[in-house]
Amino acid sequence: MKRIFSNYYLVAIFSVLLFSSCMKNESGPEIPVAGLMAFNLVPDKNAVTFTLSGNALTNSPLQYNSFTGAYLSIYTGNRSAATYDPYSGALMASGEAEFEQDKFYSLFAVGYDDTYRNVITTDDYNSLSGSNGKAYVRFINAVADSLTASLVTVSSGATEVINESAELGDVGDFVAVDPGDITVNIDGGENINANRTFSVEQRKVYTILLIGVPGNTDDLKKVQVRYVEMGMLSEDSGADAVSVVPAAAIQ
């Protein structure tokens, strides 16, 4: 397997997706690939179909508050990413993005009430250290309110490591935090208010998902804080591959 990064890799937790810089093609040269993870954060769609250049990204639509479970190998280049209602076939949102060889990306479907969009981020693990004793967290504001900017805070002990105003679809950068309990809070007024405390572990990388519908009281659809483990950084700086193993489900 070819070397693709010089200073990190993500190690297996439960099962492993080995991601090489190129996919083998028996009838021709190796094909460069990137990695893509997709999330359905649209609260009024029980399921969403994701496509890339017109081809379904997964074998079946993703349920609300679920994700692909791993980075999927995709072809590189400028490609169209779209989301569809799997029941009606209606297009929800579409756009184009440039996917580069050996890089990792997240695709978040967000929105509500026939106003949807796809948010694509570059997951820059190459800038993170696995030898400093830290964990890393970032957030996406997917609370279904396109008019309100909410205050997102993350505290580690007595230290506030994130304090940002975020609108629907905004994604924060990865921030280093000490292992242990962190407290996440989103405050956008009376109908957008949720908090949660959970524990993070050394070298693990997390995305905090701020989701739900303002004013909704249903346990699944209410405004809440969820998170997913994206993987674990290795202290080894001489990696020949990237092994990505997130948690089995959004927590």
Kindly give the count of domains.
Answer: 1
Assigned CATH class? Mainly Beta
Q: Uncertain runs with pLDDT below 50, 5 residues or more?
A: 1-21, 237-243
How is the main sheet built? 6 strands, mixed
Order of helices and strands: EEEEEEEEEEEEEEEEEEEEE
Secondary structure tally: strands: 21
Compute the CA-based radius of gyration.
18 Å
The rounded distance between the terminal residues' Cα atoms is: 33 Å
What sort of overall outline do the alpha carbons produce when their principal axes are compared? Answer: globular
Helical content, roughly? under 10%
Which percent band covers the strand fraction?
Answer: over 45%
**Corresponding CATH architecture:** Sandwich
The total of helices stands at 0
Average the pLDDT over all residues and give the rounded result.
84
Examine the coordinates and then state which fold CATH places here, giving the name of the CATH topology. Immunoglobulin-like
Counting helices, strands and paired strands, the structural category is mainly beta
